[in-house]
Amino acid sequence: xxxxxxxxxxxxxxxxxxxxxxxxxxxxxxxxxxxxxxxxxxxxxxxxxxxxxxxxxxxxxxxxxxxxxxxxxxxxxxxxxxxxxxxxxxxxxxxxxxxxxxxxxxxxxxxxxxxxxxxxxxxxxxxxx
Length: 129
Prior knowledge:
The protein has a single domain, classed as Winged helix-like DNA-binding domain superfamily/Winged helix DNA-binding domain (Arc Repressor Mutant, subunit A), CATH 1.10.10. It has a two-stranded antiparallel ribbon with strand order 1-2. The chain contains five helices and two strands. It starts with a helix and ends in a 7-residue tail after the last helix. β1 and β2 (62-65) form a beta hairpin. It is mainly alpha-helical.
């Protein structure tokens, strides 16, 4: 399993904002975190829509963390940016699987998926700051 750039960059943004004392401008975030301005804008838009960050317009504006870092977990960010994590297609709708119903691989992958999801839910932004 590998996180996409959107998840990686979003976590960096959230960690940076959690450490900041006030609003951080988009150009500052882009420069300091090495994320293209266009990509950053899309990430901030999704984080804002989910209620994790707030954007403030004007001379003293920028982006601030809206939720408490203890309320944001890694799974929330992964699900927001990429949708639910699936180790295999068979854990989704399973319509492409030609194996019989009682497949032991699906059972094993389902157990692994549950453990991964639980671990991601236990990783809070607060402990990464």
